[in-house]
Design goal:
385 residues, mainly alpha, Citrate Synthase, domain 1, Cytochrome p450-Terp, domain 2, 3-stranded antiparallel β-sheet, binds acetyl coenzyme *A
Length: 385
């Protein structure tokens, strides 16, 4: 039999395939628009905050004042981490990749949650709030330990972003810095069926519990083609060194068929609206009193111009959210290795929202692969091979 007989059309990377319906998020890759539960990302970034956005994603509607207060109080209460999780972060933070430490810590949380295996919708909602709140504490604690400093306990009087900066630096943060970080959390919170959310859903579709599902998401987010691109983009900017070197660096990289991290997207074939929001902070960094910040902003903006010129219109490769994030985080005193953990802590909201929605009409996710190997081979005993 010809094994190529009846070969189906293969959708490499599942590109262009719809596998479910969702009302969590709309990404319009042609127009460069993004909506969480129907609200444009620009409106949420300007007028809302991460805590309200997490509520919106989980419950599908904006909260009333009372609902928001209750949700915010729950988020603040859930910030603390089990002692064993803090100890484990301390044991591995210095030698493991921060995303590996964070993946392990998120997974460990299940052992300290009495509701870990209670899969009722109410328990899953409570676990989602715990996960969103504690994942930020985990990310900050990893950064703290990696800089060789002692653990800082969360402070319930601070907002989500303020508390993150406090747990990372040990100092009460500047309000403006905390607001910028809050916007970073907001724009990273959700993005439809991106690779890590799909990973969460694949795990959860087997009816594995919520902790197992988001741990799968952690693993998927790590890679440089997805969440790891923010750290990789900053590394590249540091390698470029100064804006004068950008053109040579980019042209050499493109000639060598290297990808420029922080550019291109499976869905956006125009400017990523999140990148536009993050980019707006770079303009002010151009006049920063700190040379490193001015330099990074100059490199990022010159690389953007060049890439749009070389590949933007020609190939539909535009900056994505990860490209401008690095210089902004650096200006907030956040080290590069914590960038992807911050992304994970923000995306936890989207992962949980999607998982809770998908479980309402769960279907095991199990695509097909087309077998192109040989068949009915003769087995030759090892001594005769
Ligand atoms: N730099 C240079 N060329 C690129 C880039 C880039 N960043 N991205 C895509 N291309 C080119 C590819 O080389 C390919 O060219 P070819 O047709 O001549 O072979 C073409 O554009 C298509 O690229 P694919 O990788 O096949 O497109 P895909 O949709 O599979 O990939 C992806 C999307 C993975 C995001 C890709 O653009 C990429 O690798 N970008 C860099 C990593 C990155 O920034 N990831 C973060 C994405 S946003 C996020 O996850 C939060």
């Amino acid at each position: 039999m010809d094994i190529n007989e009846g070969k189906p059309e293969i959708h490499a990377g599942l590109e262009g395939i719809y596998f479910t319906e969702s009302s969590v998020c709309k990404v319009d890759g042609q127009q460069g628009r993004l909506y969480y539960r129907g609200y444009p990302i620009e409106t949420l970034a300007n007028s809302s905050n991460f805590t309200e956005v997490a509520y919106l994603l989980l419950y599908g509607k904006l909260p009333t004042g009372q609902e928001l207060d209750a949700f915010d109080a729950q988020m603040r209460e859930e910030r603390s981490l089990p002692g064993e999780v803090i100890a484990e972060i301390g044991r591995t933070a210095a030698r493991a990749h921060p995303m590996d430490t964070m993946r392990t810590a998120i997974s460990m949380l299940s052992a300290y949650d009495a509701e870990a295996y209670n899969d009722s919708p109410d328990a899953n909602m409570r676990k989602s709030i715990r996960l969103i709140s504690k994942s930020a504490s985990i990310a900050a604690t990893i950064g703290r330990y990696r800089s060789g400093k002692l653990y800082v306990a969360p402070d319930a009087s601070l907002s989500h972003a303020e508390n993150f900066l406090y747990m990372l630096s040990g100092e009460k943060p500047d309000k403006v810095d905390a607001r910028i970080l809050d916007v970073m959390f907001t724009v990273h919170a959700e993005h439809s069926s991106n690779a890590s959310t799909f990973g969460v859903l694949v795990a959860g579709s087997t009816l594995a519990d919520l902790y197992s599902s988001v741990t799968a998401g952690m693993a998927v987010l790590k890679g440089p083609l997805h969440g790891g691109a923010d750290e990789a983009a900053l590394r590249m900017m540091r390698e470029i060194g100064s804006a004068d070197n950008t053109e040579r660096y980019i042209d050499d990289a493109l000639a060598g068929k290297k990808k420029i991290m922080g550019f291109g997207h499976r869905v956006y074939k125009t400017y990523d609206p999140r990148a536009r929001i993050v980019r707006s902070y770079l303009e002010s960094l151009l006049s920063s009193p700190y040379e490193e910040q001015r330099n990074l902003a100059q490199i990022a903006l010159s690389a953007e111009k060049l890439m749009i010129d070389r590949l933007g219109k020609a190939k539909g490769i535009w900056p994505n959210i990860d490209f401008f994030a690095g210089p902004v985080y650096v200006s907030l005193g956040i080290p590069a290795e914590v960038f992807t953990p911050i992304f994970a802590a923000a995306r936890m909201a989207g992962w949980c929202a999607h998982m809770l929605e998908y479980w309402k009409s769960n279907k095991l996710l199990r695509p097909l692969e087309y077998y192109s190997g040989q068949l009915d081979l003769d087995y030759v005993p090892v001594e005769k091979r």
